[in-house]
Amino acid sequence: MSSIVTITELLKRQDPQGTEIMQLVLHMSLPAILSQLTFIAMQYIDAAMVGSLGAQASAAVGLVSSATWLIFGLTMASTVGFSILTAQHMGAGRLHAARFLTRQALMVNVIIGLGITSFGLAISSSVPFWMGGSAELAADAGSYFKFLMLSMPFFVMRILSSSLVQATGNMKVPSLISASTCLLDILFNFLFILPSRSYTVSGFTLFIPGAGLGVTGAALGTVVAEVITSLCIVIYLVSRSELRLTCREPWKFNRSDLISAFKLGIPVGLENAVMTAAMVATTRIIAPLGTVALAANIFAIEAEGLCYMPGYGIGAAISPIIGQCLGAKRFDLLKRCANYGIMLGAAIMGLCGIIMYFACPLIFILFTPDLQVRELGVSILRIEMLAEPMFGVSIVTAAVLRGAGDTLIPSSLNALSIWGIRISLCLLLVPLLGLTGAWIAMCIELCCRGGLMLIRFRRKPWLKHEAVA
After folding, report:
1. Count: domains in the chain
2. Domain that residue 371 falls in
3. pLDDT digit string (tens) for 85-113?
């Protein structure tokens, strides 16, 4: 069996075979997919640990989860632009420029991470009430949110460093770091969420220490895991990767680099903010339906992740490929890699949707002992499974466009889709159908979003670069 070509080798070939392109996309996607699946496994175990505390604990986490995603999503504005430009520099062979950009990215994101943490801590006690939560949920929800905000500087640096390493074509190390974050989170949650306990098996008694912090322990476990793995990936970036730095290189800002990075990144950050704000709005629409609906909604979202995280894994792999093709001015190769990536995303997520349709009752047994929550969660999740292939198309196509430096229009289309279609339908259907109405709205919107992304892709936005070249 022939060895799999690298991005650099592929760019040197005038007319690479389709099998070589597919092998490269798969080779780079697999570590990212496995990392994403590890992340989902972590979410499942987290949900099961919190769910064992009762529906109220699950509802407390679900109440502030959208607000947490909103703040986490804003960090994309400060990371994605730098990774896109770095991939383009690498494809064009401008290693010195890529390293200079890396130093600027590190300085910018240290400042941003600390600023977000300060802001998050200041609003932590108010967020549960802004989300429409009751006083009985506010204490746990506020504590969970506050501790998660403490992880923000480390989260930002982990995401930035991972994306920069990915821009060089190295998917293995970032994927290993992501998987390690998940596994450490499970370990620390196991120690922090539950109280000390003993298990007796065949006459042997095993004592397991625990802090018994409940919902707060779930957030604290995330903080400790982020601290450890963010330090590891930053050290790898600056000392072992192709972008490694030396003491002789200047640490200063370049105005044009920062403008270019934020010009690419701000639309993505705003897209995440607008889309997550729509999730916040959806949570507010759902909140009056009660604790069972809130818990079922958050568990269904967690379960759905098993289907869409492979799509994000493929997107994470295809974006640096596209960026390097653009930097090397290989527009023919860019289009072929994009087509293979989009088809792969739709196929894998469609298959995952079929499996999840039948397997979801077993997954909800893992999540919660509450029969009402289980039954409602299964019914709404099965509705959304119909949209998985087009959801895969939207995820990978957006990653392709992002890698090509096209961020403004796709971000605007995503925002228009979720607010114009999903929220409008939620307002119409939830009063009539309850939580089921919200998930019907989600299914319709995801199919429409995939169609919008394909239309944008068919317009070939990278051709403007070809004209300049």
Report:
1. 1
2. 7-200+209-462
3. 998 888 888 899 999 999 999 999 999 99
